[in-house]
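Q: I'm writing up a methods section and want to include an example of the input and output format. Could you take the sequence below and give the corresponding predicted structure tokens, formatted cleanly so I can copy it straight into the document?
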Amino acid sequence: MSLDGSDAHKIVNVLRMREGDAIEVTDSAAQRFAASLIIDARGIRATLLERKPSSERQALQITVAQGVPKGQKMDFVVEKLTELGVSRITPLRSERTIVTDVGVQKLERWRRLAKTAAQQCGRDRMLQVDEPQSLEALCARFSDYDAVLLPWELAEQMPLRETLPLLVQGAQSVLVVIGPEGGFSHAEAERSVRAGGHALWLGPRILRTETAAMVLVSILNYLAG
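A: Here is the clean output for your methods example:
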């Protein structure tokens, strides 16, 4: 199996690995293999030795639709949600989204970051970064999920411990919808609730957009065991 690009660079120049070193390889089907490294005139390759059992057990598939924040905050979101086991991220456009132009280069960067973060934390399955989507288009797909959760600072002030367990009881797929820096407008929140979403209050402190998803996903992971 040939290794090239950023993988080869990391093996040789960052990790300083040598011929015969043991490595772990994950293929495009998310299968993990113990392997031995070969470095010679033909390039950098790996000899696959044996298939390893999956290290991931996901009882709950979580998708996060993230209002695209300014600057490089989305890089942080992608990395941390990968570490937390999220299945997919959908960059979200809404009424108050400042960053409306998400081009190919940004998507490719986020996908590279997701791959690197998955390798770092030992994930078998790579987090998928979708094409950007509007909130209106996303609402039309709420029925694809067992539960849709919309953290909103103006939601009814009910503690999560009283609301969340019932909402996700028995669920296998959950969509978490996070607004941009300016949050969701009343009209957007109401539209999302009419489409089947559940507005949630995360407490008296207003969280940054890059923090909210991590908090809610961590709680969901806890509830899912």
